[in-house]
Amino acid sequence: MQDTQLFNEGFALMGLGMGFVFVFLTVLVIVTTLMSRFIGRFFPEPSADATAATPRPAPAAQDDALMAVIGAAIHRYRRDRRR
Amino acid sequence: MIDKILTLWTGSGLYNLSPGQAVMLAVGLLLLWLAIAKKFEPLLLVPIGFGGILANIPEAGLALSAAEQAAHLGRPELLERLASALRVSLEPGAGIEAWRHTLSEALHGHPAPALVRAANDAAIDAGYAHGMLYHFYSVAIASGIAPLVIFMGVGAMTDFGPLLANPRTLFLGAAAQFGIFATLLGAVGMTTLGWMDFSLNQAAAIGIIGGADGPTSIYVSSLLAPELLGAIAVASYSYMALVPLIQPPIMRALTTKHERGIAMTQLRPVSKREKIVFPISLLTLVALFLPDAAPLLGMFCFGNLMRECGVVERLSDTAQHALINTVTIFLGLSVGSKLMADRFLAVETLGILGLGMVAFAIGTACGILMAKLLNAVSKAPINPLIGSAGVSAVPMAARVSNKVGLESNPHNFLLMHAMGPNVAGVIGSAVAAGVMIKYLG
Questions:
Q1: How far apart are CA B408 and CA B258, in angstroms?
Q2: What is the DSSP string of A63-74?
Q3: Subunit structure, briefly (chain A) (predicted)?
Q4: Chain B touched by A50 (CB under 8 Å)
Q5: Inter-chain CB proximity B188 and A45 less than 8 Å
Q6: pLDDT tens string for chain A (83 positions)?
Q7: Contact between A13 and B289 using a beta-carbon 8 Å cutoff
């Protein structure tokens, strides 16, 4: 008898849980879609700008790193030579 | 002289090694072998396996609390004090071994926290201390902190771009959670049939394995069924490692070759603003509808916001690398500490491992069926294979979708499309966890 009750409770939890997960994610789909549309309409991102802006700093950073590596290599080379 | 040698012998690990401990040491070594030779989730299985070995060293008691150690080693006077602290009675003529047994049983049986504190105090007064792994466990897992910090790191590693470009994939993440609840029902059903003995709380904690999300399962079982934590953590992490073996046969069985070859339209670019606003709107929904999921999803959103906002690079970097690695070490060792012979070696563990596998398979199947449904009703084509990524297991499940897709159509790259349901699965299983905690906690 108690076992049947346990099973029923498990069943209730399943219905409730699955229902809630679906409702929550449906609301999330709606909110996300609205949010995307809102942002797309009122703050349109100049996409050309975005693509142009991102690559530019990247080479600069790479150059810095490259310069540091080259500098270190020259330094070590000279130091090793002196010995 | 011979007495001294005898003392050394009776205090040795070999003398005290119980058969259960020997088995668990072998299990620990097996986990290490799987991690090192087979590369199964090595980041977790190495600490878990090693923690399991440490926890089962005879007499060292690394994973025991002060009271448990005192019950095992203490003098009769101390045992009497422990018994009075725990409010259990010791039979006067039963002998000291029987007393030790009664006390250990009483401590394992989850007495009220106040009684445990009193017993621990009595043991500490007598000069016993908590074991190292016991400390790790209480700081990292019993407090709930380690899974939450890991969730923050996962948030900081997650790119919601594919999900934002195609929000409908959230439904796939929802469908795959059916595995969780079906397994819960399975565990309850086994109890009804008299095969196992699981309470509803335990059944819920076992079901969460179907979410294929390690931190979520550890968090839920630490709240609902701490006594099953070892088996649940081992099951959920092993199945995450087994994703590439478990999922493809189910995916092939449920789809036709034509469906597997469906090409999906390219995802639209997602602006930075959308990515920044998304974690905040998700958190708002959690706050409005399911505050019980707030610890998990709150940390997740926080990590993701740090990643996307672009002004706290250093914090985001720490959350993704240094912090998550540190916490993983302690989480693994703490989970390993739950692999103690007398608690892990039970029929229930086998039941948990079996049910976990079922949970996982059902989740995969439901995700695929949901994807077929979406494909039937929507204008844009959806390849059913991405549905299987709805069980979390980021990013392994998405890679499996990609791989199976490439088998049918070598020009069809599904990876980015599958990342959407994959992160949706993380959100879905956290929501499911929140519902369980709300209902049972």
A1: 8
A2: HHHHHHHHHHHH
A3: Heterotrimer of an alpha, a beta and a gamma subunit.
A4: yes
A5: no
A6: 467 888 888 999 999 999 999 999 999 999 999 999 999 888 886 655 444 444 444 555 567 778 888 888 888 888 887 75
A7: no
Report yes or no on B148 lying in a domain.
Answer: yes
Which pLDDT belongs to residue A83? 58
- Minimal C-alpha gap between B274 and chain A (Å): 6
- Identify the burial level of B294 via C-beta atoms within 10 angstroms of its C-beta, where 0-12 means exposed, 13-18 middle and 19 or more buried: middle
Is the residue at B241 inside a domain? yes
Closest residue in A to B438 (Cα–Cα): A17
Chain B hits for A14, CB-CB cut-off 8 Å, are 181-182, 184-185
Collect all residues of chain A within an 8 Å Cβ-Cβ radius of residue B180: 17
End-of-domain residue from the set B129, B162, B184: B129
pLDDT, position A52: 46
**Substitution target from A25, A26, A43 for chain B, most B beta carbons within 10 A:** A25
Do A40 and A54 lie in one domain? The reply is no
Q: Tokens 């006390």 belong to which residue?
A: B103
Total domains present in chain A: 2
Whether A39 contacts chain B with CB within 8 A: yes
Return the number of other C-beta atoms located less than 10 Å from residue B11's C-beta.
11
| C-alpha to C-alpha distances, B145 to B166, B218, B343, nearest whole angstrom | 33, 11, 23
Minimal-distance CA residue of chain A relative to B288 = A24
Question: Does ipTM come in above 0.85?
Answer: yes
Task: Give the closest residue to A33 by CA, choosing from B168, B206, B366, B406.
Answer: B168
Task: Give A31's contacts in chain B (Cβ within 8 Å).
Answer: 281, 285
Higher-confidence position of A82 and B225: B225
pLDDT of residue A50: 46
Tell me which of B129, B158, B185 is where a domain ends: B129
Q: Which domain holds residue B407?
A: 140-440
Interface of B with A in 79-138 (CB under 8 A): none
- pTM of the predicted structure, to 2 decimals: 0.86
Q: Does A65 touch chain B (CB under 8 A)?
A: no
The residue segments making up the domain with residue A69 are 49-83
Asked if A29's CB is within 8 angstroms of B167's CB, the reply is yes
Other CB atoms within 10 Å distance of the CB of residue B256: 11
Residue B85 falls within a domain, yes or no?
yes
